[in-house]
């Protein structure tokens, strides 16, 4: 497997752990606010292969206590379970970031015990999902199935939404809250502009509006919180 990026140490990506973050190329969404646009279209050059990644992890035993996988969309890789098995054999817990569009592959990873923490993006309310994800259509039942899988899995998880002033409105968060009612953890993250974001003129909501959104969600998801503000 080709690895398209590696952050050698992070205290932020895997809650409660000192981890590295592995970036995999390829995605079936095209979110206009994505920070990793070069990973979506496959233009990013690989930085290593899985043999080099495993060698790095072998050397970092005792310094790292987790490996986070993000993208792109990692579950698009059919050989992902095999790589996860090799990493688990080294003794590392694994965190997976996913868009939830492949519940069958997510279920296989959960059933085999190959992931220890899952962070799933909830892009927007169902009626605005495709627009926010930058595609013509989204199979919302697959999103719903992944939500149900995580909430019944017994594995640590979170749902999260990157909040963009131009894409989100108060009613969207009522709909999201109903979608993930009873969730263990949900984070609202204000959009942060970077040079790697393809589309311009996006902004984060002001703190007052972020709090308004979070308060609306807490009526149904009491553990909802704002992250990164």
Key traits:
two-stranded antiparallel ribbon; 229 residues; eight-stranded mixed sheet; 32% helix; TIM Barrel; alpha/beta
Number of helices: 8
Question: Which shape, going by the Cα principal axes?
Answer: globular
Main beta-sheet strand count, sense and barrel state: 8 strands, mixed
Domains counted in the coordinates: how many?
A: 1
**Helix content class:** 25-40%
SSE layout:
Layout (H helix, E strand, L loop, with lengths): L1 E2 L1 E6 L8 E5 L13 H4 L7 E2 H10 L7 E4 L9 H10 L4 E5 L4 H9 L5 E5 L7 H5 L6 H14 L2 E8 L6 H10 L6 E5 L16 H12 L6 E2 L3
Helix pairs in contact: 4-6, 7-8
Q: Brief description of this entry?
A:
The chain has helices at residues 37-40, 50-59, 80-89, 103-111, 129-133, 140-153, 170-179, 207-218, and strands spanning 2-3, 5-10, 19-23, 48-49, 67-70, 94-98, 117-121, 156-163, 186-190, 225-226. The protein has 229 residues and is an alpha/beta fold. It has a single domain, classed as Aldolase class I (TIM Barrel).
Report on this structure.
This protein is 32% helix and 19% strand. Helix 7 (170-179) links the parallel strand 8 (156-163) and strand 9. The chain starts with a strand and ends with a strand. It is α/β, with parallel strands linked by helices and 229 residues long. It is built from eight helices and ten strands. The protein has one domain (2-226): TIM Barrel, CATH 3.20.20.70. Helix 7 packs parallel to helix 8 (207-218). The protein is globular. It has an eight-stranded mixed β-sheet with strand order 2-3-5-6-7-8-9-10, covered by helices on one side. It has a two-stranded antiparallel sheet with strand order 1-4. The protein has helices spanning 37-40, 50-59, 80-89, 103-111, 129-133, 140-153, 170-179, 207-218, and strands at 2-3, 5-10, 19-23, 48-49, 67-70, 94-98, 117-121, 156-163, 186-190, 225-226.
């Amino acid at each position: 497997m080709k690895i398209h990026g590696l952050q050698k140490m992070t205290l932020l990506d895997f809650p409660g752990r000192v981890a590295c973050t592995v970036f995999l190329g390829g995605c079936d969404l095209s979110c206009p606010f994505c920070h990793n646009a070069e990973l979506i279209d496959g233009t990013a050059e690989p930085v290593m292969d899985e043999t080099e990644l495993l060698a790095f992890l072998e050397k970092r035993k005792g310094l790292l206590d987790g490996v986070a996988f993000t993208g792109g969309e990692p579950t698009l890789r059919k050989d992902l379970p095999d790589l996860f098995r090799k990493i688990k054999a080294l003794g590392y817990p694994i965190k997976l970031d996913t868009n939830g569009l492949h519940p069958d592959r997510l279920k296989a990873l959960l059933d085999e015990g190959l992931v220890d923490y899952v962070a799933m993006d909830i892009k927007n309310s169902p009626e605005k999902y495709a627009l926010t994800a930058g595609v013509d259509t989204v199979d919302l039942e697959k999103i719903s199935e992944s939500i149900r899988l995580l909430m019944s899995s017994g594995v640590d998880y979170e749902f999260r939404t990157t909040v963009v002033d131009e894409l989100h409105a108060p009613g969207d968060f009522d709909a999201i809250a109903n979608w993930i009612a009873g969730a263990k953890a949900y984070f609202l993250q204000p959009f942060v502009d970077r040079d790697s974001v393809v589309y311009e003129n996006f902004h984060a909501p002001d703190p007052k509006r972020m709090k308004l959104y979070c308060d609306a969600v807490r009526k149904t998801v009491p553990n909802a919180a704002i992250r990164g503000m």
